[in-house]
Write a structure and sequence with these properties.
Layout lengths: L1 E2 L3 E3 L7 H13 L3 E5 L6 H12 L3 H5 L16 E3 L10 E5 L31 H27 L17 E7 L18 E6 L5 E5 L6 E4 L5 E4 L5 E6 L1 H6 L9 E4 L5 E8 L11 H6 L10 H11 L17
Parallel strand pairs: 1-10, 2-3
Antiparallel strand pairs: 3-11, 4-5, 5-6, 6-13, 7-12, 8-11, 8-13, 9-10, 9-12
Helix pairs in contact: 1-4, 2-4
Pfam families: 2OG-FeII_Oxy, DIOX_N
Keywords: Iron, Metal-binding, Oxidoreductase
Organism: Dreissena polymorpha (Zebra mussel)
Protein backbone atom coordinates (compact mmCIF):
# COMPACT_ATOMS: atom_id res chain seq x y z
CA UNK A 1 0.00 0.00 0.00
CA UNK A 2 1.30 3.47 -0.88
CA UNK A 3 0.30 6.84 0.52
CA UNK A 4 -0.49 9.91 -1.57
CA UNK A 5 0.34 13.02 0.44
CA UNK A 6 -0.89 16.58 -0.11
CA UNK A 7 1.57 18.68 -2.14
CA UNK A 8 2.33 22.26 -1.11
CA UNK A 9 3.98 24.37 -3.81
CA UNK A 10 5.99 27.05 -2.02
CA UNK A 11 6.35 29.05 -5.23
CA UNK A 12 2.65 29.89 -4.75
CA UNK A 13 3.00 30.89 -1.09
CA UNK A 14 2.04 34.48 -1.91
CA UNK A 15 -0.01 34.24 -5.10
CA UNK A 16 -2.36 31.56 -3.69
CA UNK A 17 -1.73 32.13 0.00
CA UNK A 18 -5.15 31.47 1.51
CA UNK A 19 -5.79 28.38 -0.61
CA UNK A 20 -2.36 26.98 0.24
CA UNK A 21 -2.89 27.72 3.95
CA UNK A 22 -6.16 25.77 3.99
CA UNK A 23 -4.44 22.86 2.22
CA UNK A 24 -1.59 22.77 4.77
CA UNK A 25 -3.97 22.69 7.73
CA UNK A 26 -6.18 20.05 6.09
CA UNK A 27 -3.12 17.86 5.48
CA UNK A 28 -1.93 18.23 9.06
CA UNK A 29 -5.38 17.46 10.41
CA UNK A 30 -5.54 14.22 8.42
CA UNK A 31 -2.40 12.56 7.04
CA UNK A 32 0.00 14.53 9.27
CA UNK A 33 2.58 14.35 6.44
CA UNK A 34 2.89 16.75 3.50
CA UNK A 35 5.15 17.12 0.46
CA UNK A 36 6.77 20.56 0.20
CA UNK A 37 7.74 21.49 -3.38
CA UNK A 38 9.79 24.32 -4.88
CA UNK A 39 11.76 25.51 -1.87
CA UNK A 40 13.81 28.39 -3.26
CA UNK A 41 17.61 27.96 -3.29
CA UNK A 42 17.59 24.52 -1.63
CA UNK A 43 20.27 22.43 -3.35
CA UNK A 44 19.32 18.74 -3.14
CA UNK A 45 22.36 17.60 -5.12
CA UNK A 46 24.56 19.53 -2.73
CA UNK A 47 22.90 17.89 0.27
CA UNK A 48 23.58 14.48 -1.21
CA UNK A 49 27.21 15.44 -1.84
CA UNK A 50 27.49 16.57 1.78
CA UNK A 51 26.25 13.16 2.95
CA UNK A 52 28.68 11.30 0.72
CA UNK A 53 31.60 13.58 1.58
CA UNK A 54 31.21 12.94 5.30
CA UNK A 55 30.03 9.34 5.52
CA UNK A 56 32.59 8.06 3.01
CA UNK A 57 35.38 9.41 5.20
CA UNK A 58 37.37 7.03 7.45
CA UNK A 59 36.33 6.59 11.06
CA UNK A 60 39.42 8.53 12.14
CA UNK A 61 37.92 11.75 10.77
CA UNK A 62 34.49 10.98 12.22
CA UNK A 63 36.05 10.41 15.64
CA UNK A 64 37.25 14.02 15.71
CA UNK A 65 33.61 15.17 15.93
CA UNK A 66 32.17 12.11 17.70
CA UNK A 67 30.10 12.73 20.80
CA UNK A 68 31.72 12.37 24.17
CA UNK A 69 29.84 9.17 25.04
CA UNK A 70 31.60 7.40 22.15
CA UNK A 71 34.85 9.38 22.24
CA UNK A 72 35.71 10.66 25.75
CA UNK A 73 38.48 12.82 24.26
CA UNK A 74 35.81 15.17 22.85
CA UNK A 75 33.75 17.64 24.89
CA UNK A 76 30.66 17.77 22.63
CA UNK A 77 27.80 15.74 24.11
CA UNK A 78 24.75 16.71 22.03
CA UNK A 79 25.99 17.89 18.64
CA UNK A 80 28.43 16.18 16.29
CA UNK A 81 28.71 12.58 15.09
CA UNK A 82 27.03 9.46 16.43
CA UNK A 83 27.98 5.99 15.10
CA UNK A 84 25.95 2.90 14.36
CA UNK A 85 25.18 1.13 17.63
CA UNK A 86 25.09 -2.63 17.30
CA UNK A 87 22.04 -4.39 18.69
CA UNK A 88 19.81 -1.35 18.25
CA UNK A 89 16.83 -1.63 15.87
CA UNK A 90 17.65 1.91 14.71
CA UNK A 91 20.50 1.30 12.26
CA UNK A 92 21.99 4.67 11.36
CA UNK A 93 24.93 6.98 11.75
CA UNK A 94 24.56 10.73 11.72
CA UNK A 95 26.21 14.12 11.99
CA UNK A 96 24.26 17.06 13.37
CA UNK A 97 24.79 20.70 14.16
CA UNK A 98 22.86 23.79 15.16
CA UNK A 99 23.03 27.55 14.81
CA UNK A 100 25.60 28.54 17.44
CA UNK A 101 24.66 31.11 20.07
CA UNK A 102 27.07 33.87 21.09
CA UNK A 103 29.69 32.62 23.54
CA UNK A 104 28.94 35.55 25.89
CA UNK A 105 25.14 35.16 25.93
CA UNK A 106 24.31 35.45 29.64
CA UNK A 107 20.83 33.94 29.17
CA UNK A 108 22.26 30.52 28.34
CA UNK A 109 23.44 28.25 31.13
CA UNK A 110 26.99 27.06 30.55
CA UNK A 111 25.92 23.42 30.76
CA UNK A 112 22.87 23.74 28.49
CA UNK A 113 23.89 21.21 25.86
CA UNK A 114 21.10 22.32 23.49
CA UNK A 115 23.29 25.37 22.89
CA UNK A 116 26.73 23.82 22.86
CA UNK A 117 29.03 24.88 20.04
CA UNK A 118 28.78 22.55 17.06
CA UNK A 119 31.99 20.67 16.18
CA UNK A 120 33.03 20.49 12.52
CA UNK A 121 35.33 18.02 10.74
CA UNK A 122 38.51 19.22 9.07
CA UNK A 123 37.85 19.75 5.37
CA UNK A 124 40.05 18.66 2.47
CA UNK A 125 38.94 21.18 -0.18
CA UNK A 126 36.81 18.60 -1.98
CA UNK A 127 33.49 20.03 -0.73
CA UNK A 128 32.62 23.16 1.35
CA UNK A 129 30.94 21.03 4.01
CA UNK A 130 30.47 23.55 6.84
CA UNK A 131 29.61 26.57 4.69
CA UNK A 132 27.14 24.64 2.54
CA UNK A 133 25.32 23.04 5.46
CA UNK A 134 25.09 26.28 7.42
CA UNK A 135 23.57 28.00 4.38
CA UNK A 136 21.12 25.10 3.98
CA UNK A 137 20.14 25.43 7.66
CA UNK A 138 19.08 29.03 7.11
CA UNK A 139 17.08 28.13 3.99
CA UNK A 140 15.19 25.41 5.87
CA UNK A 141 14.72 27.59 8.96
CA UNK A 142 13.09 30.30 6.85
CA UNK A 143 11.01 27.72 4.98
CA UNK A 144 9.70 26.31 8.26
CA UNK A 145 8.78 29.80 9.46
CA UNK A 146 6.89 30.42 6.21
CA UNK A 147 5.02 27.13 6.59
CA UNK A 148 4.02 28.11 10.13
CA UNK A 149 2.62 31.36 8.75
CA UNK A 150 0.50 29.30 6.37
CA UNK A 151 -0.63 27.10 9.27
CA UNK A 152 -1.66 30.20 11.24
CA UNK A 153 -3.59 31.65 8.29
CA UNK A 154 -5.31 28.32 7.76
CA UNK A 155 -6.29 28.25 11.45
CA UNK A 156 -7.67 31.79 11.21
CA UNK A 157 -5.18 33.36 13.65
CA UNK A 158 -2.48 36.02 13.32
CA UNK A 159 0.07 34.74 10.82
CA UNK A 160 3.22 35.65 12.81
CA UNK A 161 1.98 34.16 16.08
CA UNK A 162 4.47 31.25 16.07
CA UNK A 163 7.56 33.30 15.19
CA UNK A 164 8.50 34.33 18.72
CA UNK A 165 9.24 30.70 19.60
CA UNK A 166 11.93 30.38 16.91
CA UNK A 167 13.54 33.72 16.09
CA UNK A 168 15.87 33.94 19.10
CA UNK A 169 18.09 30.92 19.86
CA UNK A 170 16.01 28.06 18.44
CA UNK A 171 17.12 24.59 19.52
CA UNK A 172 16.70 23.31 15.94
CA UNK A 173 18.94 20.50 14.77
CA UNK A 174 20.18 19.91 11.23
CA UNK A 175 21.19 16.29 10.69
CA UNK A 176 22.65 14.28 7.82
CA UNK A 177 22.12 10.52 8.07
CA UNK A 178 23.36 7.30 6.55
CA UNK A 179 21.38 4.08 6.90
CA UNK A 180 23.49 1.08 5.86
CA UNK A 181 21.54 -2.13 5.19
CA UNK A 182 21.66 -4.89 7.75
CA UNK A 183 24.54 -7.29 7.36
CA UNK A 184 23.70 -10.85 8.26
CA UNK A 185 20.80 -11.50 10.62
CA UNK A 186 19.26 -8.30 12.07
CA UNK A 187 18.45 -8.25 15.80
CA UNK A 188 15.03 -9.60 16.72
CA UNK A 189 13.85 -6.14 17.79
CA UNK A 190 14.33 -4.94 14.18
CA UNK A 191 11.90 -7.51 12.75
CA UNK A 192 8.35 -6.17 12.86
CA UNK A 193 4.97 -7.85 12.87
CA UNK A 194 4.50 -7.97 9.10
CA UNK A 195 7.89 -9.63 8.54
CA UNK A 196 9.65 -6.50 7.36
CA UNK A 197 12.94 -5.31 8.84
CA UNK A 198 13.19 -1.77 10.16
CA UNK A 199 16.21 0.51 10.27
CA UNK A 200 14.17 3.04 12.28
CA UNK A 201 11.35 1.60 14.42
CA UNK A 202 7.82 2.95 14.67
CA UNK A 203 7.70 6.33 16.43
CA UNK A 204 6.34 9.83 16.48
CA UNK A 205 8.84 12.67 16.53
CA UNK A 206 9.10 14.53 19.81
CA UNK A 207 9.59 18.16 19.06
CA UNK A 208 7.86 20.61 16.65
CA UNK A 209 8.16 19.83 12.93
CA UNK A 210 10.52 18.11 10.51
CA UNK A 211 11.52 19.01 6.97
CA UNK A 212 13.03 15.86 5.50
CA UNK A 213 15.11 15.45 2.35
CA UNK A 214 14.77 11.82 1.18
CA UNK A 215 16.43 12.11 -2.24
CA UNK A 216 15.03 9.22 -4.31
CA UNK A 217 14.95 6.55 -1.62
CA UNK A 218 12.00 4.46 -0.54
CA UNK A 219 11.53 2.89 2.86
CA UNK A 220 9.53 5.58 4.68
CA UNK A 221 6.18 4.25 5.90
CA UNK A 222 3.39 6.06 7.74
CA UNK A 223 0.66 4.56 9.88
CA UNK A 224 -2.79 5.18 8.44
CA UNK A 225 -5.99 5.84 10.39
CA UNK A 226 -6.99 2.17 10.11
CA UNK A 227 -3.70 1.05 11.70
CA UNK A 228 -2.09 -0.29 8.53
CA UNK A 229 1.22 0.88 7.08
CA UNK A 230 1.54 2.81 3.82
CA UNK A 231 4.78 3.60 2.01
CA UNK A 232 5.43 7.22 1.13
CA UNK A 233 6.47 7.23 -2.52
CA UNK A 234 9.80 8.92 -3.28
CA UNK A 235 9.43 12.44 -4.69
CA UNK A 236 12.85 13.75 -5.81
CA UNK A 237 13.29 17.50 -5.45
CA UNK A 238 10.71 17.69 -2.67
CA UNK A 239 10.72 17.79 1.11
CA UNK A 240 8.53 15.65 3.35
CA UNK A 241 7.10 17.59 6.27
CA UNK A 242 5.52 16.19 9.40
CA UNK A 243 4.71 17.68 12.77
CA UNK A 244 5.87 16.42 16.13
CA UNK A 245 4.27 15.62 19.46
CA UNK A 246 4.99 19.10 20.81
CA UNK A 247 3.02 20.90 18.11
CA UNK A 248 0.16 18.38 18.16
CA UNK A 249 -0.08 18.66 21.94
CA UNK A 250 -0.17 22.47 21.78
CA UNK A 251 -3.08 22.24 19.37
CA UNK A 252 -5.04 19.78 21.48
CA UNK A 253 -4.47 16.99 18.94
CA UNK A 254 -6.20 18.88 16.13
CA UNK A 255 -2.99 18.66 14.11
CA UNK A 256 -1.72 15.10 13.83
CA UNK A 257 1.65 13.68 14.86
CA UNK A 258 1.63 10.54 12.73
CA UNK A 259 3.53 7.37 13.60
CA UNK A 260 6.11 6.39 11.00
CA UNK A 261 9.06 4.05 10.48
CA UNK A 262 11.85 3.34 8.00
CA UNK A 263 12.16 -0.08 6.38
CA UNK A 264 15.46 -1.62 5.27
CA UNK A 265 15.54 -1.40 1.46
CA UNK A 266 18.70 -3.47 1.11
CA UNK A 267 21.01 -0.67 -0.03
CA UNK A 268 22.78 2.28 1.55
CA UNK A 269 20.23 5.03 2.16
CA UNK A 270 20.81 8.71 2.96
CA UNK A 271 18.47 11.31 4.37
CA UNK A 272 18.68 14.89 5.66
CA UNK A 273 16.14 15.92 8.30
CA UNK A 274 15.87 19.46 9.64
CA UNK A 275 14.30 19.31 13.09
CA UNK A 276 12.66 22.71 13.59
CA UNK A 277 12.58 23.27 17.33
CA UNK A 278 11.59 26.16 19.65
CA UNK A 279 14.02 28.04 21.83
CA UNK A 280 14.70 26.47 25.23
CA UNK A 281 12.31 28.78 27.09
CA UNK A 282 9.67 28.90 24.32
CA UNK A 283 6.08 28.44 25.51
CA UNK A 284 4.71 25.14 24.19
CA UNK A 285 1.86 24.89 26.68
CA UNK A 286 -1.51 23.33 25.90
CA UNK A 287 -4.61 25.22 24.74
CA UNK A 288 -2.58 27.36 22.36
CA UNK A 289 -5.69 28.32 20.37
CA UNK A 290 -7.16 29.88 23.51
CA UNK A 291 -4.02 32.00 23.77
CA UNK A 292 -4.37 32.95 20.09
CA UNK A 293 -8.08 33.68 20.08
CA UNK A 294 -9.03 34.46 23.68
CA UNK A 295 -11.71 31.79 23.48
CA UNK A 296 -11.76 28.35 25.10
CA UNK A 297 -10.00 26.65 28.00
CA UNK A 298 -7.24 28.65 29.65
CA UNK A 299 -3.80 28.39 28.07
CA UNK A 300 -1.20 26.91 30.42
CA UNK A 301 2.37 28.14 29.99
CA UNK A 302 4.98 25.38 29.71
CA UNK A 303 8.59 25.83 28.61
CA UNK A 304 9.95 23.67 25.83
CA UNK A 305 13.35 22.80 27.32
CA UNK A 306 12.26 21.36 30.68
CA UNK A 307 9.38 19.49 29.01
CA UNK A 308 11.43 17.83 26.28
CA UNK A 309 14.19 16.83 28.70
CA UNK A 310 11.79 14.35 30.26
CA UNK A 311 11.11 12.82 26.87
CA UNK A 312 14.60 12.47 25.43
CA UNK A 313 16.56 11.98 28.64
CA UNK A 314 14.44 10.50 31.41
CA UNK A 315 12.29 8.35 29.12
CA UNK A 316 15.39 7.35 27.12
CA UNK A 317 13.37 7.36 23.91
CA UNK A 318 16.29 7.71 21.47
CA UNK A 319 19.52 5.70 21.68
CA UNK A 320 21.65 8.65 20.55
CA UNK A 321 20.46 10.73 23.55
CA UNK A 322 20.25 8.18 26.34
CA UNK A 323 23.24 9.45 28.32
CA UNK A 324 23.03 13.19 28.78
CA UNK A 325 24.00 15.27 31.84
CA UNK A 326 21.54 17.46 33.69
CA UNK A 327 20.93 21.08 32.75
CA UNK A 328 20.62 23.67 35.52
CA UNK A 329 17.21 25.41 35.59
CA UNK A 330 18.13 28.45 33.51
CA UNK A 331 17.35 29.29 29.89
Amino acid sequence: MTSSLPIIDMSKAYTERNELAKKVVLGLENEGFIFIDNVAKLDYDGLFRACKWFFDKPIELKRTVMRNIWNPENSNIYRGYFPITEGEPSRKEGFEFARDVRYDDVTVAKNNWFYEKSPWPKEDGEFPFKEFLQESYEILHNTALEILKLVAIGLGIEENIFEDMFLDKPCSTFRIMHYPPWKGEPPKNAIVEDGKVVITPEHTDTNFLTLLTRFNYGGLEVKTMDGSWAEVDPRPGSLVMNIWDTFSRMMGGRLKATKHRVIDIGIDRYAVPFFFTPRYDGDIGINFMSKATGVGQEHRVERYGPWVLDVIKNQKKYFEYRVLPDIEPKA
